[in-house]
Specification:
alpha/beta; Rossmann fold; six-stranded parallel beta sheet; six-stranded mixed beta sheet; elongated; LacI family transcriptional regulator; Peripla_BP_I; Peripla_BP/Lac1_sug-bd_dom; Lambda_DNA-bd_dom_sf; DNA-binding
Length: 316
């Protein structure tokens, strides 16, 4: 099998010239480029990409640590990353974890082993102290705010967004408010939701929170439990429009009117929410993902905030 040295000999050029041709370097004469490409075609030569990457000093590959791939929020973040990767000719490696901290560290070792140029963390299982050492080997970008100067982040102010939701519901006269979350209090976003609630309404009763909500079916189950509480909540803030849609369907199935008997707010402006006219808190996660890619590509440690949007519809 031909190698780069054989290609150079047959083309009558140096190995470094062959390397420049393989890497599309502009400082190669047209005569030498043509000679090298002719030999490559005749020999049916396929370059060793790992060797090319080592010569170039980068892989043009970025990893995306993502807990789940069937979650609307993470899907939107990934969609944003993929948008920008196609525009910039980068490959994206999706690295699912299911919030397993050991799996997350295993993925981060791909930076140390020079298999990736950067890693984007959409949501993490490990404390930052376990992640920071890997910034020595490549760019680490977070999709949540972090003060650590070694890590760039593309984020939205979740706490401010949650606060606005609860303030709006209070202004509308609601006092018994329930909400759903994906994870328990180990999650930063769950703790921020509870903190925002308590800022507006005071002490929070855990019975009015339903965790492990990811899908339409989870929303149906959450609606059944939450609407069975006495006193029944008059408003539910769901952690996603799919979940909100399930709550909406269950509420209607037991004869409740929306919004007269129950106000519903979802998240992320998904098609199901548009179809059911459910109000939503749009974190603009596609834009967050796009910005995360840009930071990773240029190896930036900047902190870039994307503003959220409240979209009010008939469900409240």
């Amino acid at each position: 099998m031909a190698n780069i040295h054989e290609i150079a000999r047959l083309a009558g050029v140096s190995v470094s010239t062959v390397s420049r041709v393989l890497n599309h370097h502009k400082y190669v004469s047209e005569e030498k480029r043509t000679a090298v490409l002719k030999v490559i075609e005749e020999m049916n030569y396929t370059p060793n990409r790992n060797a090319v990457d080592l010569i170039r000093g980068e892989t043009k590959k970025i990893g995306v640590i993502i807990p789940y791939t069937n979650n609307q929020a993470f899907d939107q973040l990934l969609h944003g990353v993929l948008n920008r990767s196609v525009e910039n000719d980068y490959a994206i490696m999706v690295l699912p974890t299911k919030y397993n901290p050991d799996k997350e560290i295993e993925h981060l070792f791909m930076l140390k082993n020079k298999l990736l140029d950067a890693i984007i963390i959409t949501s993490r299982a490990n404390p930052w102290e376990n992640i920071l050492p890997f910034t020595e080997y490549g760019s680490v970008i977070s999709c949540e705010y972090t003060e650590h100067p070694e890590i760039g982040c593309s984020y939205m102010d979740r706490y401010a967004a949650y606060l606005e939701v609860f303030q709006l519901l209070k202004k509308m006269g609601h006092r018994n408010i329930a909400f759903t979350t994906a994870r328990g209090t180990e999650s930063v976003s769950t703790r921020q939701t509870i903190a925002a609630y308590e800022k507006v309404f005071g002490q929070f009763d855990p019975v009015y929170r339903q965790s492990d909500c990811f899908s339409f079916e989870d929303g149906m189950a959450a609606g059944q439990r939450l609407l069975g509480i006495n006193p029944r909540p008059t408003a539910i803030y769901a952690n996603g429009d799919e979940v909100a849609g399930g709550i909406y369907k269950y509420a209607r199935s037991v004869g409740l009117s929306i919004p007269e008997d129950l106000a519903i707010i979802g998240q992320e402006n998904q098609p199901v929410g548009v179809g059911l006219d459910i109000s939503t808190l749009d974190h603009q996660l596609v834009k967050v993902g796009e910005q995360a890619f840009d930071l990773a590509m240029i190896k930036s440690k900047a902190k870039v905030e994307t503003p959220y949007k409240m979209i009010l519809r008939s469900s409240i």
